Amino acid sequence: MSLGCILWTYLNQKKFVVSAAQPIFLYQLCMGCIVMATAIFPLSMQGKESTPQLDKACMSIPWLLFLGFVISVSAILAKTWRLEKLVGSAHGMRRVKVKARDVMKPFIALMVWNVAMLIGWTIVSPLKYVRTPTNNFDIFGRSLESYGRCESSDSWVYLFAGLACAANTCGVLFAAYKCYEVRNVTVYFSETTYLTWSMASLTETLLLGAPILVVVKDDPSAFFLVAASLICVCCWAFLLPMFVSKLFHKNSNYKDAKIDGQRRQEERLYSVAVGADSQFEDEYDGSGRINIRRFDSTVSSQYKSSNCNNWGGSSHHSARNCPRTEMSLTSHEGFQR
Hints:
Elements: H1 2-11, H2 16-20, H3 23-37, H4 40-43, H5 52-91, H6 105-124, E1 127-133, E2 146-152, H7 156-181, H8 192-215, H9 220-274, E3 279-284, E4 289-295, H10 301-309, E5 325-330, E6 334-336
GO molecular function, one term: G protein-coupled GABA receptor activity
Transmembrane segments: 24-43, 63-82, 103-124, 156-180, 192-216, 222-244
Domain G-protein coupled receptors family 3 profile: 57-245
């Protein structure tokens, strides 16, 4: 599924709804899900006895799960933070270019923290493949059945896993906060609703799946089935809200984008008509009309005096107290005074 989303993003990256969603972060989201999904393969490995290969497979499971989760969550956080920076600069009437690497600090911080915890986990208390005998013995006291699972030799594993989970939880909360800040941005830019769906799905999956894992921990087949299902559901919780929504909203949002592009083009034409040094502000009432108010603070004095002396037929206006001019601009009628 992640590979299909990567292919779809590549084929549609020039369309507005995809480019507005920042394809580089969509790729990152898919790669994180792929890394998480690969944890299913070492999870399925079994053996009659403990071997170094099985021990490495056991320890690779938390590496794949934690790093894949960090990559996916950081993609949502980075794309939302980038949008928040752009919206903030627009409110301040500043032109700013925010590159992808400018918002990768949370990703780097989370990745470094998780790698540090995983390294400590691997060195201090690594997971090992252990076969545990069941209560089925023969007359000589020998075990007739046993099951294998990954276990740690001491309780340090809970410390490292808990610290990594705490950092990832903070990353999710920070991403939710950034989405809340840009909640009023148009739907084809903002991911607030879809992030809420993702977080709700993840929370429900973990709350329902964790108790089931505890119950079936002594049954390797059932444990693998439940764990693999949880991993798949977590990946779907990341991918489905982000990509399915774009498939359904692609056409309508593209029409809205064309309207916004037409509005920006009209504003540029107006700025050329009144002069590049003029300061103006616009009001958009949603009816297709843009009311633009221009302040003649930087226009030449000759232009001011000639217009102010003829304003409304009176000659007592001076260039100092020249009133501001208001103009209406529509896409069909051109410039109107």
